[in-house]
Automatic annotation (TrEMBL):
Residues 487-523 are annotated as: Disordered. Residues 487-497 have a biased composition (Polar residues). Keywords: Signal. The lineage of its organism: Eukaryota, Fungi, Dikarya, Ascomycota, Pezizomycotina. GO terms for molecular function: hydrolase activity. It comes from Daldinia eschscholtzii. Residues 498-508 have a biased composition (Basic and acidic residues). GO terms for cellular component: cytosol; extracellular region. This is Calcineurin-like phosphoesterase domain-containing protein.
Length: 620
């Protein structure tokens, strides 16, 4: 792990349950190759992961089973190691490329900017030329304008130890905000292509579908149905992502999917047993296939535990070298430079909104009013709108570093505005963005405004939890408050923490963390945690800036409300522009993109960094 990273705290653990084919899975790592420097539970880095997979491959060989390492995209945007360099990814592409990966695909984040699409094509695809799969993604070559597959459409291989034949596909959900040098083919269209029809008739022992697709999104369901119609009994393993959650979904007895979280907090483990080799004909209906999964907290305590190694035997030379490369990259980019000291934690969804601990309340009441200023229009009252999805992570009490700015908001979106909008019209926009779903077309679904954990369709357990409220009536996003995984019940746990053994306790005090419930039960997490509550957030927040003050003599005793301004500047982060225009039109404003002007060239990242430097004392 990285210098300065806190040591992980020991926790009661569940073992990995190996099968004939085993998968180790990362997804949505968003540049967090250095691990989490402020959270011991997730503090292992990509070098440690390389050591881990090397030991796990050896274990698989000793057991005579197979192990495949998978990544399902969104490798970029969200961490200084990627975002702070010029060009972006100067260090992170090479560091990521040090891992041996058996199948990988593209996420939507690789496609927002033309430069990252091209970088993927010219760097990651050739690096992983035998394992990169692009079933529904094309690249437009800049030299010729030709549209070519971003990588091979599917791969076929035979596993090393048990000799299973596998056909692997790699999809992206039906994403449509991609840069012009890429083409995403809707999944249902891709499945009509000749290559796909050939692939599903290959009669392998196992279909492997990797995808940057939420498990509960329609795309995986569609792929499952088409493969299953043609292959009644063949096991199908889906490895997905995009939703930033730990989840497992059952499609049928022989088809399961897992998703392995976000930000390199989680290393997913899926095992399959009972796969029957085909002897030229169809697999028999009787073959019973079992799927097991484990969500590994990415820290050294757990990685040592699962490999049976320790501090001195665990790191491989390769792993150590990669950890060193990460440390060098971080140093060159000055990622640990402190911009200010946060006096408290500010949460995205672990605190209710609005509240003093909500990062969105902090933005709305402190950061935006102080920072969204265009000198030429500084006295014009304005509404400033930011989508909650623009914020990606929490702020922890302590040093707020250069790195933190990219963890919080990596996007290069700037602030635009429409001048002098009648207040009666402008004041309706926020409500429509947050609650006016049907006003917008399906292409402008308002779910794309909020945080992925809330936006992407989630399983029945999440849905049930999000119908709950806390005792003050605030809607929960998900909270395993009623999960059987309570601190008092540690059934299935194999190792108590050293501290707790020393204290001679049977039921140690647990630390807060993921307590996942999915289609396979509530025993998926490797480390047993006490549950954390997550609260729902709105799609967008809004700050009222430079509004008229209440009338009166300023003695503070005035009760009359301030008058509304006649007109305001409607300022918004550029990502939300299509929704804002639509909401204005619905509210009776005759506006289009032609009315939009640049308000400030600062990104939200710049705005937050500037505010922290100005308002928080430098050192902690
Ligand atoms: N310029 C951008 C780009 C994206 N977002 C937000 O991120 C969400 C997608 O995140 P994933 O990690 O799940 O791909 C998207 O729905 C937006 O909320 C943004 O705010 N600005």
């Amino acid at each position: 792990s990285q210098p300065g990273a806190p040591a992980p705290v020991a926790a009661p653990m569940r073992d990995l349950e190996w099968g004939q084919i085993n998968f180790i899975h990362t997804t949505d790592i968003h540049g967090w190759l250095g691990g989490h420097l402020q959270e011991p539970q997730y503090s292992a880095d990509w070098g440690d992961y390389i050591s881990f997979t090397s030991h796990m491959r050896k274990k698989a060989d000793e057991k005579g089973v197979d192990l495949l390492v998978i990544d399902t995209g969104d490798r970029i945007e969200g961490n200084g190691l990627y975002d702070a360099s010029n060009p972006k990814g100067k260090y992170s592409y090479d560091i990521f490329g040090e891992q041996t990966i058996d199948a990988l695909c593209t996420g939507n984040h690789e496609l927002y900017q033309e430069t990252s699409v091209a970088r993927e094509h010219n760097t990651t695809v050739p690096k992983f030329k035998h394992s990169y799969i692009a079933s529904n993604l094309d690249y437009i070559e800049p030299e010729t304008g030709n549209q070519i597959p971003q990588a091979q459409r599917y791969i076929k291989f035979t596993t090393k130890n048990l000799g299973y034949n596998v056909v692997a596909l790699g999809f992206l959900f039906n994403f449509d905000r991609n840069a012009n040098n890429s083409v995403v083919q809707p999944v249902e269209e891709a499945m009509k292509e000749e290559w796909f029809q050939k692939a599903i008739r290959e009669k392998p022992d196992l279909f492997l579908v990797i995808g940057h697709v939420g498990l509960r999104m329609k795309e995986f369901e569609q792929i499952f149905k088409v493969i299953r119609d043609e292959n009644w009994y063949t096991p199908i393993a889906f490895l997905g992502g995009h939703a930033h959650v730990r989840d497992a979904r059952k499609f049928d007895d022989k088809a399961y999917a897992i998703a392995s979280g976000r930000y390199f907090e989680t290393i997913g483990f899926l095992s399959i047993d009972g796969i029957k080799k085909k002897s030229g004909s169809e697999v028999s209906a009787e073959a019973a296939v079992t799927f097991k999964r484990r969500y590994i907290d990415n820290n050294l305590f757990g990685l040592h535990y699962h490999t049976g190694l320790n501090e001195s035997t665990f790191p491989t030379e390769h792993g150590r070298n990669v950890s060193r490369l990460i440390a060098e990259g971080r140093k060159a980019l000055n990622l640990d430079d402190s911009f200010g000291c946060a006096s408290q934690d500010l949460w995205m969804s672990r605190a209710p909104y609005p509240s003093d601990s909500s990062i969105f309340s902090w933005l709305e009441t402190q950061v935006l009013p102080d920072s969204i200023v265009n000198e030429e229009r500084k006295d014009v009252p304005r509404l400033a709108i930011v989508n909650t999805g623009a914020i990606r992570f929490d702020i922890f009490k302590g040093a707020f570093t250069k790195d933190s700015t990219y963890l919080i908001s990596p996007f290069i979106s700037r602030f635009n505005y429409i001048p002098d909008v009648p207040y009666a019209v402008a004041s309706k926009v926020l409500e429509l963005l947050n609650n006016g779903g049907p006003v917008f077309s399906s292409a402008l679904d308002t779910q794309y405004l909020t945080i992925p954990e809330q936006a992407v369709p989630r399983g029945p357990f999440f849905e049930a939890a999000s119908a709950e409220t806390d005792n003050e009536g605030r809607r929960l996003l998900f909270a395993d408050v009623d999960s059987p995984q309570k601190p008092l019940s540690l059934s299935g746990a194999n190792s108590l923490s050293k501290q707790d053994e020393d204290k001679g306790k049977d039921d140690p005090e647990l630390i807060g963390g993921y307590t996942t419930r999915d289609d396979l039960g509530d025993d998926g997490d490797d480390a047993i945690h006490s549950p954390i509550k997550f609260y729902a957030v709105p799609n967008c927040i809004q700050a009222k800036i430079s509004f008229p003050s209440p009338p009166g003599n300023g003695d503070g005793n005035d009760t009359a409300p301030a008058p509304d301004p006649e007109t305001v500047d409607l300022v918004f982060i550029d990502y939300v522009q299509p929704w804002v225009i639509k909401a204005l039109q619905f509210s009776g404003g005759d506006y289009s993109n032609d009315n939009v002007k640049v308000y400030t060239n600062s990104t939200l990242t710049d705005v937050i960094a500037g505010w922290v430097k100005k308002h928080w004392k430098k050192d902690c």
